[in-house]
Write a structure and sequence with these properties.
The protein is about 40% helix and about 20% strand. With about 280 residues, the chain is an alpha/beta fold. The chain has 2 domains: about 140 residues, HUPs (Rossmann fold); about 120 residues, Rossmann fold, CATH 3.40.50. The protein has a 10-stranded mixed sheet, sandwiched between helices. Strand 1, helix 1 and strand 2 form a beta-alpha-beta unit.
């Protein structure tokens, strides 16, 4: 069976943007699209479902309405995105539990970000960060407003490289995305002269980038790669480069990541501020 692309649906503007983005991704990958609404029944209420003490019908009605709107949106999309195979699911658990459970059989989870104001992006504190810790597949986070990239566009995919195991996973995903979109790839790594001579630090960064891309350039000969080695803070430099990208791909943890940690500081900072979709390669 083809592994599906799973989208968390809650009826918000960010959720609707996530559905549109995921439908286009499903069309490119010839994959079914699963729209999932998690009712989020409180644990203490589960034994009471079906009794007069807890009426789930109102929650179910809200979920069915959101899923119906999501299916309608996919049907209205032009091109192959509007023809993808769509299935809808109404799950009882919380969004994190429901989506994490479905990630085992999925090739990608897609959720919406709340807004440009970090205070509005509470999703990262609940669903987003929780999924980075528990998901068994990559997770894409889509802002509420996504600029449409025309099919003929040459806007590249961007990947952050730091030499870690998670970064290597992200590089592979980024090459695959660039190839499927028929665009170039911008690979960014940063360096700092605080712990040594600037020239030495830059040379090490260039060597690290070359090693990280080795093998992928042979596997994806049609992907034109722009190698960027720049001084500065990783998150800041990635956000600057993201202004000219259609997708950012990052590892969930960097070289300083702790096994089992939910999300690395660089990835979290980029997620909080990015105005383009961010795809996180989840590593444990």
């Amino acid at each position: 069976m083809r592994r599906p692309i799973v989208v968390g649906v809650d009826g918000s503007a960010a959720s609707l943007a996530a559905i549109r983005w995921a439908a286009a991704m499903a069309a490119r990958r010839a994959a079914p699209l699963h729209l999932v609404h998690a009712i989020g029944v409180p644990v203490h209420a589960v034994p009471l479902i079906g009794s007069l003490l807890f009426d789930i019908s109102a929650y179910r009605t809200i979920g069915e309405s959101a899923l119906g709107e999501g299916r309608s949106i996919v049907g209205q999309l032009g091109g192959s995105a509007g023809d993808v195979e769509v299935h809808t699911f109404l799950d009882l658990p919380s969004p994190v539990a429901a989506l994490a459970a479905r990630s085992a059989a999925a090739q990608l989870l897609v959720i919406g970000a709340r807004g440009l104001d970090p205070l509005e992006r509470v999703l990262f504190g609940s669903v987003g960060v929780g999924l980075m810790k528990r998901a068994d597949c990559p997770v894409a986070v889509i802002p509420a407003v996504v600029e449409t990239v025309p099919p003929s566009s040459h806007v590249p995919v961007l990947v952050g490289v730091d030499g870690s195991r998670c970064s290597a996973h992200a590089v592979g995903i980024a090459f695959d995305e660039a190839a499927s979109r028929k665009v170039g790839l911008v690979a960014v790594t940063t360096w700092s002269g605080r712990n040594g001579a600037p020239s030495t630090a830059r040379e090490r960064a260039e060597a690290l980038l070359g090693e990280s891309l080795a093998g992928f350039t042979d596997k994806y000969p049609d992907v034109c790669v722009d190698r960027v080695v720049v001084e500065g803070r990783p998150a800041q430099r990635l956000l600057e480069a993201a202004r000219h990208a259609q997708l950012v791909v990052l590892g969930s943890r960097g070289r300083g990541g702790i096994a089992g940690a939910a999300l690395g500081s660089v990835s979290q900072a980029v997620l909080q501020a990015s105005r383009v979709p961010v795809l996180i390669a989840v590593c444990r």
